[in-house]
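Collaboration report, partner site 2.

Our partner group contributed sequences for two proteins of shared interest, and the home lab folded both. The records are reproduced in the order in which they were received, starting with the first partner submission.
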Amino acid sequence: MNTTKSALAIIVALSVLITACSKDGKRTDEQNQQSLSDKPVEITEPVNLIFYVSGATFTATEFKNQIKDPVEKKFKHITIDRLEPPSTVTVPELFSSGTVPDLVFGDNYHTLKKLKVVEDLRPWFKKYNFDESRIKPYLTGYIHSFGDNGEIYGVPYNSNQHILYYNKDVFDKFGVPYPSDEQMTWEQALDLARQLTRTENGVQYIGLDAEGLTYYSRSLALATIDPITGKSLLGSPEWLRVFNITKANFEIPGFLPKDNTKYLWGRDVFMKDRTMAMRPAWLANMVGPMEELRQQGIDVNWDIAPIPTFADQLGKTRETQVHSITMTSLSKKKDAAFQVIQYLLSDEAQRIISRNGRVPAIINPELEKEYGAEVGTLKGKKIQNIFVGTPLQTHKSNPFETDIAKYMTEANLDLAHGLDVNSTIRKASENIDKEVERLQKNQ
C-alpha cells in the first residue's frame, strides 16, 4: 500500500472511531439532514461533530480546554471530536476520502472554495439571530473578502496577533537592555539584534529572526500578487522597503546559517535551543507550544514586547491572522454545528479562549484583561504589550498566492547569497508572472 492510500485508510478509521465515540453512537435520519426550516432547531438527540484543523496551530490541549470541554458542558446532546489525519494528507485528499468534517478551523478559504465544501452562513445568521457586529471589523472584513457575491464562509474565532518574544537570559548574558515597552521601529530592533548576534564558546546566538520577506511584509499588509489579475506587486515602493529591511537583517554579521542553504532559524531555536534573543511571531504559533514545553518541565525565561514596525506605521501592528471556524456544506448536522459556532462566539466561550491564551474575536475589552490567566507560561508576562497598537486587516489574497510562495523563498535565498535588492525583485517578479500565467491557463 502506498503512502497516500495508507494515510487515507487511517483517516477513514479515525472517522469511524470518532463516530463511535458519540454519546450513544446513534444518529436519527432527521439529524442527518440539513434543517430547511427557518426556525431554530433544538438538539434533543445525541449528535457527534467532527472538528478538523487546517493550516493553523491549535494544540491538543487548546482543543480540549477551549472547544471540547466547554461545548460538551453547554450542549448535553452534542459531542465534538477532533479529526487528526497524518500530516502528509492534504485537504483535497481528506475530503476525497469520504471523511466529512462538520467544522473546519483555520484559514484555508481558497482551497475550501475550490473544493466547493464551504457553506454560506448568511441564512444561518438569520435563522439563529447571530449578531456579526459583535466581532472586530478587521476580522470580519478579511473573511468577507472571500465572498464573490457577499457570501460569508466563516466566523472569526480569535485574532491571532503578532508580538515580539524575547529571551531574557540571552539579553542578560551579553549585558544588553531588554526591548522597550514602547513600540520599536524595525531599524531599532535590528540595532539591538546586532549586539546579540554572536558566537560564544562555540554556541551561535541569534539576535532576531523575522523569517524573511513575507513576514516583514505583514507590517504593511502587502499582497504578493494582485488579488484580481495575479500580476506581481513586488515592484511597488512598499515592497522595496520590505526587501531592504530583509537584506539588512540578513547582513547582520553571524546571522546567516553556516550551511548557506537557508535564511531563517525558526521556532525551536527560540523555544528549545534558547539561543535566539528575539522572535517576532504570532501568539498562537508560540504560546500553546511553549505551554506544552512548560508542562514537560522546560521553561524559557522570556517576556513580551510590542511588535516592531516601520517608522511611519508606529501605533499599528502587523496584519492579524484570522483563525476562524467554517461549517462545511457537506455536513449533515448543520443545525448542531452552527449552534456550536454561535456558542463559541458568546461572551462565555470567548472569555474561556482569552483566559487560555487567544485574543478574543469579539469586541469586549474586559475579556482582554483576562488574557492568559489559565496559561502557566504567561504568568508574570507583560500581557499589556500584546495590545499595544492596532492590528491591520489581512490583505485580500489571490488564489495563486500559495502557489508562488516558492519564489518568495527563492528571493530570500538570493538576498542571503548576496544578490542586490533590485535584481532580486526583478527576478522574483518575472518568475511569479510566468507561474501565474501558467496556472491561469491550466485552470
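Second partner submission, folded after the first:
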Amino acid sequence: MESLRDRDALIPQPRGNLPKVCAVVLAAVALGIVVLLSQQGLLGWVAMALLIVTLGPLVHGLCLLVEEMVHHSNRYQGRALAKMLPACGLWGRNLLTAGLAALLLHLTRHTLPLKDQWQLFVLVPVLYTVLKSLGIQGLSEAEVSDICESRKMNVAHGLAWSFYLGYLQLLLPCLEDSIIAFCATHQASSPLWGRGSKKLFILIPLDTNIPDKLEEVDDNIRFYDNLPNKELNRAGIQGRVYKHSVYRVHDEHGRGHDCVVEYATPLLTLYRMSQDRGAGFGEPERRQQVLLFYRTLQEILGQSLECRNRYRLIMLNDERKDDPHFLSKAILGHLEQQEKEEFCLDPPPLQETGPQPRIPYANGEWRRGDPMSREPTLMISLESPQPLREPVENTEQWCRGN
C-alpha cells in the first residue's frame, strides 16, 4: 500500500494565489524603474498603460457581441442585450477600469506628450483583438483548468457529485445496520469482521480499467455474498434495488478478512469516454480527471454528516500492477490502518500508581481514595442539595432515605 505522503503528492492540489503575488511584485518593480527614470508624470504613464491594456479586451468584446446578437440571441431569455454585455466582457470590472483610467489620463494629460502617443491607442487594441480572435493570445491550459476547477465545470466534478447524491448518500447511512443484519444470518462471517472494517471500501484505479469481478485481478480475493438489498423508489422506478457485495480477502498467512469492497462505477464513464473518439478525451486528460474525481469525492464526503466514518477511499496506482496480489495488499493495508485509527480513538483508562488523595467521609473520618480503575464509591456531600430547576416537595426526605 502506498503511503499517505505518496498519495498526497499524487493528488493535484487546488491552484493558489502565487501568480497574483508574482504579478504584484513585477508591477512594483516596474513602477520603481519608471520612478527612477521618469521624475514626473508617473500617474499619467500608469493611466495610459491601464487604458491601453483594457481597450484590447473591450474591442474584442465588441466583436463577440456582434456574433452573439446575430447568431445566438436565442440563448438569452428576456432582456437579451442586458445579458449579452456581461457575457462578452463589456460590463463590470473591465469597463470600470477603462473608465477610471480614461478619467485619470484626462486629469494628467498636461504631464504627457499625448500628441505623439495616439497611435498606441489605435494599434494596440486592434492588434490584441486580432491575436485573440486567431487564438494566438488565448487562454493557457493552466488558466482553462483553473477556470474549470474553480467553477466546478470538470467532468470529474459532475461524476463525483452524481456518485454521491445518487448512490453514496442513499446507502452509506444504513451500511452498518446492513452489515449487522448480514452477520446475524452468516455466523461464519461474523468473527472475520474487524472493528474498522464495517465501512464501504471504494477502489479508485488511476487507469480506470475496472473488471467485473475482483477475483479476476487478485486470486486472494473471493466473493462471499451480498448484503441485504435496499429498495428505493427513484426517478419513477418502483422498488429500485441497491446492493453491496461482501468479499473475503486473504492475507499472506491465509487468514480471511471480510469487508465490503467495490470500484467507483463513475470511472467506467471516464474510461469509455477516453475510448470514444467523439468525446475528445485522451489518456492524459482521463488520468487528470481521475485525480480530480478522487479529490472532489473526498471533499464532498468529508463534509457529509450522513456519510462520515462510513467509507474508505483507496487510490490504486497503476504503476504497481506487476504484483499479482497488489489489490489484496492494498485492501489489507487500509484495513490494518483503519483498525489502528479505530483503537486510537478509544484509549484505555490510565492507571494511577502514585499516592492517592485522602477523601473525607460524612462523619469527618479520612481514608485514601481509590484508583480510577476500581469500582466507584458513594460520596455524600455535607452541603444541602441545590435544585436544578425548581424545588421538589420530597427532596429532603429522599436525601435522608439515601
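Feedback sent to the partner group on the second submission included the following. The CA atoms of residues 51 and 99 lie 8 Å apart. The two ends are 60 Å apart (CA to CA).
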